[in-house]
Amino acid sequence: MDKEERKTINQGQEDEMEIYGYNLCRWKLAVVSLGVVCTGGFLLLLLYWMPEWRVKATCIRAAVRDCEVVLLRTTDEFRMWFCAKIRFLSLETRPFLSPKSMANKVSNGHTVHLTENLAEENRHEMSKYSQTQPQQIRYFTHHSVKYFWNDTLHNFDFLKGLDEGVSCTSIYEKHSAGLTKGMHAYRKLLYGVNEITVKVPSVCKLLIKEVLNPFYIFQLFSVILWSTDEYYYYALAIVIMSIVSIVSSLYSIRKQYIMLHDMVAAHSTVRVSVCRVNEEIEEIFSTDLVPGDVMVIPLNGTVMPCDAVLINGTCIVNESMLTGESVPVTKTNLPNPSVDIKGMGDEFYSPEIHKRHTLFCGTTVIQTRFYTGELVKAVVVRTGFSTSKGQLVRSILYPKPTDFKLYRDAYLFLLCLVAVAGIGFIYTIINSILNKVEIGVIIIESLDIITITVPPALPAAMTAGIVYAQRRLKKIGIFCISPQRINICGQLNLVCFDKTGTLTEDGLDLWGIQRVENTRFLLPEENVCNEVLVKSQFVACMATCHSLTKIEGVLSGDPLDLKMFEAIGWILEEATEEETALHNRIMPTVVRPAKQLLPSSTPAGNQEMELFELPAIYEIGIVRQFPFSSALQRMSVVARVLGDKKMDAYMKGAPEVIASLCKPETVPVDFEKVLEDYTKQGFRVIALAHRKLESKLTWHKVQNISRDVIENNMDFMGLIVMQNKLKQETPAVLEDLHKANIRTVMVTGDNMLTAVSVARDCGMILPQDKVIIAEALPPKDGKVAKINWHYADTLTPCSNSSAIDSEAIPIKLVHDSLEDLQVTRYHFAMNGKSFSVILEHFQDLAPKLMLHGTVFARMAPDQKTQLIEALQNVDYFVGMCGDGANDCGALKRAHGGISLSELEASVASPFTSKTPSISCVPNLIREGRAALMTSFCVFKFMALYSIIQYFSVTLLYSILSNLGDFQFLFIDLAIILVVVFTMSLNPAWKELVAQRPPSGLISGALLFSVLSQIIICIGFQSLGFFWVKQQPWYEVWHPQSDACNTTRSLYWNSSSHLYNETELDTRNIQNYENTTVFFISSFQYLIVAIAFSKGKPFRQPCYKNYFFVVSVIILYVFILLIMLHPVASIDQVLQIVCVPYQWRITMLMIVLVNALVSIMVEESVDRWGKCCLSWALGCRKKVPKAKYMYLAQELLVDPEWPPKPQTTTEAKALVKENGSCQIITIT
Q: Domain of life, per the record (predicted)?
């Protein structure tokens, strides 16, 4: 039983895998070796392509804890197999371990994350490591991550740093002192070198990997076969094409590796200073850093070589490498719970939650701030591929395969062709044996039929359309790093947009302020920069509560903070490093108004103001900063006016949050109403608050205080109203998408009502549509999770609001077509918190909400990714358009992610637009649709080419004849390659249409189109082949045959006689059947090319594709010329025999009728195919394939949907795991 065990690693994570243990088996290895020799190495290739077969063929099952090889299988929909060899890490070199502790070890150990107590750590951790004699740890490496055997879990697990299960208190108490040299050496042994290595494979390695592709192996087989058959010319053409394809592929793969290597290698090795336990500073290479090291951040900044948490000082960091935002971010030291008044020792450190205190690998520290000569220190928490940058690089190095129906269907179609080839293969062998053909000829001809049916030029033909589309996208400023995604973009039926910087302008303009005096709102004021307000607490808050800093003399920081600071016209000054080091009490940053703003004289009546103005200069020093946190939705500062004894606390943030932290008596009664009025108009509102701090709070105490102590009991001061204008092109682009039946969704980090307002302004939500806000609350105090439904236009903070008139509830319309279901009358809106609760507690409701969810506000980056996944789960093809700031995960996860930012973060996005405008979205979809239709056209054409040629050869095999080498060459090179590479050049149609292209090749209309053309072509070829035998002049051809008139016959026979004297026709190429089949089939290739070259509605008409038109005309003229007016030299080369002129006219008539029938049938299939199929299948009710369509059908007849206003949906407590829920109407 133990041997059959199956374990799971990375449980619940994106890269979850099943793991099986195996041991090498010698007799199996011997059998496989014999098989490899017998199959001429083909078995080895097969085992190279299939890791699962390779392991199972050479190994036997074993327990995971004792195995030599592990077989891994991903648990996602792709179920991909990988294998890895078990290695041993020797732990003999450990100077700090006593023999006594060694004796206490167990036989099989493990690795855990670093334990809290450094003194105990050596004994505790070492006692659990796997150890045979001598001490060894078992591990394997997969996708650049080491997995060690963990004896406690009885499973393999990757080694964690200080980013999991370590409390904030212990970071200060147990990790802030640094490591001993012995402990550092031991950890280095386990964690390895701190570097993100992107090895650029040698050209030789890449070449072998590329050449061993199953397709190139098939091409090699074809080329060898053709060479034995003396068909050198086409073999040479295929070899040249393959070489060009391999070289271009190697160039692009190697270029990507080099780009990634350069991006990672920059600053990968730097010298860093680390603190040791005895307070000595040691200088080491960054590659030697391990979790637990205390790194000293240099004054002039550095590029972070690892992830580390700040425990001392402040840093200004450029995080554009990770977030796409080039705005500098201020990082402060991690709050020390043991020093705080309110202890929070139980809080665990997490790089995501505490990102404002974490310096991430690859980000640039621009400046550091410190006090009293103290060093700026950070504890290393993650190294190498475990860092945030390492994870990004891993996701690029090992991307998930692209799952697209077209590619799955293409393989299925190829299998069908292989089956057809199999029939031809058997027929050829039987026919040849019956006709007593030599064995060598039988083998060559029967294998030849396989290479005819499965065309080696197919992949080159399929990629042509994508390459052309990529080139056209580049012309309109859209760059693509994943060309296969272009086809998938043709299927997009839903696009998610970020709001700020994508739908709206990047920056915010200050619209005005609305101050509060005596708990009442004053009238809105437009100008903040005036003498009256200069010394007010409101302006003081605007002047100090920000994260701005001067970098090389230029004020930089968050654009919102910049706009606010510029609006008041103040000046920011920063102390130099020397001043900060000299004086304990020097403020790191000072702000003061410009001289012209200060009043020249004080009003005599105001005694308080006179006292307040005693200092000659009015300056405010910023003592401590609590940076903005998206989780808390606020930021605050502690500041002191020069000459004041007490310090002030200022806070700004989301109005709802700020109001909740203020004294209720200071918040105006009409606060919610005023806020709602602004947000409904699409304004972004920020609230300000202030309070005087107690005099007992000294400068030193403030440096270690928790923000919770400061951020409460504040006085509400008023609102700052910012305007975020819509981009000019936004409404028009969204209208185009709606007309094309493409759903649009807004995903933003902004306020809910602002987002709804912007959605209405840009046309995402039409004026008559209703918006239902889903407010989900998690389980609390024994109560189950619930969702409250409000209608946005009637949303009031009061719980006793009057019931909404039932007529306001949207009426459901019964639609004839499922496509029309997208034109609905209601939309759901929710925030990130509600979205998370719904995903966790209401799994059955989530798909229904995905069907009509339009606005998702206050969404964290990981929630954006979850939303994309949720939409994909109901079978939407999802596009995502964002400015790259916090959309990396979502851009990567979407079927088509397009970044409007050209920063390094766009490395995560398959597409990057040069112009920061959403007009790139319809352009990308249009090009995607054109590329997809091109792929279909090319695939259908290549399938027909295979079948036409296959049937031609099969007919000729029946009379022991074949097509001549130059006939094959003319068809394969002059006709097929020219047509394939020019028919792909049709540009995209100029506008998006409501109709969508089919997603797969295996669709009724498409199969009917291919099958009907196959039948037509086979019919007309057979007609020509059998009709020529009925002609009065027909005889079995021989060099003296005279089927032409006398004058031509003399010329023809003499030339033929001369020709045959030099080279006898041993293969029976020259005959009337061959000539007839050659001419008819040559025209058939061109006929189907024209029939399949579809234009509108996805591509420009084929007559606008000039290269294609010219190529087809030249080929038509040439074939007509050699058919109606023979040229002796051409006839000799093509091995065509002379036939009477009357038969030439007959062949022309066959071809014309064939063309007419083919084009009429294809047009009919296009026009009525779908209707006929729907009618034929009408007798049985067809269930839609897409889940969202099926759901839409269900919801049409659901009387409880959409939820009524003022109702609540509760999750059932007993069956929480399956997410069932019930609707309770609250009266």
A: Eukaryota
